[in-house]
Amino acid sequence: MTEIAAFAAILLALGAGVALAVLSTRLTTWIPIPSPAVFLVVAAVVSDLFPRLYSKVPVLTVERIAVVALIVILFNGGMDIGWRRFRGALAPILSLGVFGTFATAGLVAVFAHYVLGFEWMTAGVIGAALAPTDPAVMFSVLGQREIDGRSGVTLEGEAGVNDPAGIALMIGMIELATHDDASRFVILREFVVEMAIGAAIGCIGALAMVALLRRITLPAPALSPVLALALAGALYGVTALAHGSGFLAVFIAGLIVGDTRTPHKSEIERFHGALAVLAEIAVFVVLGLVVRIDSLTLDVWVDGIALVFALAVLVRPPVVLAALAPFSFSRGERAFIAWCGLKGAVPILLAAFAVLRGVGEATTVFYIVFVVVLLSVVGQGTPVPWILRRLGIPTRETSAAG
């Protein structure tokens, strides 16, 4: 009975925290603060109010929950874009998603070393953690509107590519940081191997997924979305076991499934759309739960503020200008894409990877990344609607999910 009561207390605290976070998003009706910031802060406060909850949610559990959530989010993100729209902006997406990831990580590492005084290895880990973007944070303040034209597709596609790219880059950095005999080329090797295997298995797996969804008749339409989810999870597992990027494979599968006619396609899209919203809430909440507010020291805040400034002013704009130089984007579109390098759940997850693998100063990096994400979500995400209007970026109404 004691165990039941203890588990009930954890469920009460967790359920109350999630419910409070969701209900608090009503504030965004009046104040355009992206909901992920609310989830992060509320979860961090709850974990401080209920210390037992903090102790019962280890970083390893958080990592696993975040991985599952990202599988759902990336698969749904791929379906939302679809291969035809993605292909129309393929070159700028790959330029931002691959070149942009490496350039951002490198420039942030240089700033962290020379300005903030971190050792090169720690600076490299910070750079790798902060390279991925999360436009879902930005889209959360737009409500039932979405960005029209190539800029919106480019931002969505960039995140779909640079999330797997950033994870592959961090794996290489961790290998370099934890093995004295590791060569610096291990970062490039890990990146190339993971992305190549992920892309190959993603394409093959997507075709197999489409064939199964088309040819297997299930006794109830509600089982089709469940089958699609199970296949996406299995695809991630197969790819990861083959030392490829499971996240890239799942994203590619979503792109292909999104543009393919299958039985009960509308049920699949509605189910995964709702599940992606839940996954986004879950990942920000569990990441917030492993943060102790009293560990956010003045030094952590100073470093976090400096990195947010560097990313927004010194790093992202030149990276975007270089990556998009060969392509015909307007000046307003380039400025908007440059502003929208918002950080989300993936940087915190990558910092958690470093903590779990025992990288030096990883705990400090984790809290700095948390501050960067929080400030990026609030500081860069909040003015997005105003910036859209000022730059003349077209938007359109979207129908509410039904």
List the SSEs and their pairings.
Elements: H1 2-24, H2 35-49, H3 51-56, H4 59-81, H5 83-88, H6 90-114, H7 120-129, H8 135-139, E1 145-147, H9 150-178, H10 185-215, H11 223-241, H12 246-258, H13 265-289, H14 298-324, H15 331-339, H16 345-356, H17 362-381, H18 384-391, E2 395-397
Helix pairs in contact: 1-2, 2-13, 2-17, 4-9, 4-11, 4-12, 4-13, 4-16, 6-7, 6-9, 6-14, 7-9, 7-16, 9-10, 9-12, 9-16, 10-11, 10-12, 11-12, 11-13, 14-15, 14-17, 16-17
Polypeptide structure, described:
- This protein is mainly alpha-helical.
- The chain has one domain (2-397): Na+/H+ antiporter like fold (Up-down Bundle), CATH 1.20.1530.20.
- The protein is built from 18 helices and two strands.
- The chain has a two-stranded antiparallel ribbon.
- The N and C termini lie far apart (42 Å).
- 49% of the residues are buried.
- The model has no long low-confidence stretch (mean pLDDT 84).
Keywords:
76% helix; two-stranded antiparallel sheet; 1% strand; globular; 402 residues; Na+/H+ antiporter like fold
What's a concise summary of this model?
By secondary structure, this protein is an all-alpha fold. The chain has helices spanning 2-24, 35-49, 51-56, 59-81, 83-88, 90-114, 120-129, 135-139, 150-178, 185-215, 223-241, 246-258, 265-289, 298-324, 331-339, 345-356, 362-381, 384-391; strands at 145-147, 395-397.
CATH architecture identity: Up-down Bundle
Order of helices and strands: HHHHHHHHEHHHHHHHHHHE
Please tally the helical runs, counting DSSP H or I stretches of 4 or more residues.
18
Q: Please tell me what the overall shape is.
A: globular
By CATH reckoning, the class would read Mainly Alpha
Please give the order of strands in the largest beta sheet. Answer: 1-2
